[in-house]
Design goal:
mainly beta; Neuraminidase; 4-stranded antiparallel sheet; about 35% strand; globular
Amino acid sequence: MNTKRRHLIGGAVAGLAIALACAQEAIDEAASTGAGAGAEAPRFEVDPFWPKPLPEHWLLGSTIGVGVDSRDHVFIIHRRASIDARTELGAEADPPTAECCRAAPEVLEFDTEGNLVNSWGGPSDEYVWPESNHGITVDHMDNVWIGGNGATDSHILKFSRDGRFLASFGQPELGQEPDSHSETRFNRVAEVAFDAEANEAYVADGYGGRRVAVLDASTGAFKRYWGAYGNAPDDTPTPPYDPDAPPLQQFRTPVHCAEPSLDGLVYVCDRPNNRIQVFRTDGTFVDEVMIAPRTLGGGSTWDLAFSRDAGQRYMYVADGSNHRVHVMDRTSLEVLTTFGDGGRQAGQFIGVHSIATDSRGNVYTTETYEGKRIQKFVYMGMGPVSAEHQGTPWPSGGGGS
């Protein structure tokens, strides 16, 4: 029987409320008596020197995707059009008004040290570039997939990691009319993720659609799709989110991520509903969790990534409205702690949008709106949960990692 339990997570970490309301001495005392004993979580520090400065006076716009390949190279995608041409792109003016600056190419690739090693992307005669590119992920063959959430975006692009065009899936430029039952088009795709063993691509579909769609990762053929709670998707417009109303039986738009785990589950970011829903790979509903459920507007569940241990014990959820990352126990769906805060300094966020991990346990985030950057959070090992909200995870030594 499917369970539909809802974890209301707002201001406290379950099982640690008393300990986390006290100082560190109280936490230690509680641990000695068994309350909160053994509660640990991964620890991170921001590396303020990663990545290294870009060449050619390049600037990033709203940075709305991040992916990591098999070599731990980090790929990001940004929107050139979001850069203010009047104040920031003097070198591109005709005639140039200043030596700096220029918009970087849409896709940038960094090595583990933060060096830029490649760049590509943008319109071409070979394919239709999205009106508003959105999300970048690297599959198990090191191919790069890009969606789009513009008004006419209804397809997905697939490239080799060096930017060679491989395929386009879905009919492009079909306009805004949603059709969450179509097997020939998409509905403003947010992101794609992959099940390597099954060679399947999971599409968060999306800003116009209200479903998860599953494709053959080689051919792009549709295999199955579903909506919230495993229901058939319904494109009927929904009322504004009300934190005191019963749970909506459909996804709101955007459906912002759909991430398969190694143990046969799929975690879906139902962003404006402030929830993550968990399914089996056939679309059977398993569980859900509410995160910061009183968040309005853009919602709290923007993207997620798993830790790289064999059991994927932890899950990191990017919360672009509250400007933080939630560190969660993947199995229990409990929030253990959070890091980050609103701001433009290293370790803070403005619209943390996308998140990914590498093989060493490091976390990478990108920021949309006026954040316009990528950040690296270095894995510092496990440690006791010392605060519900850690704030800015500045390096303890005061320097870069």
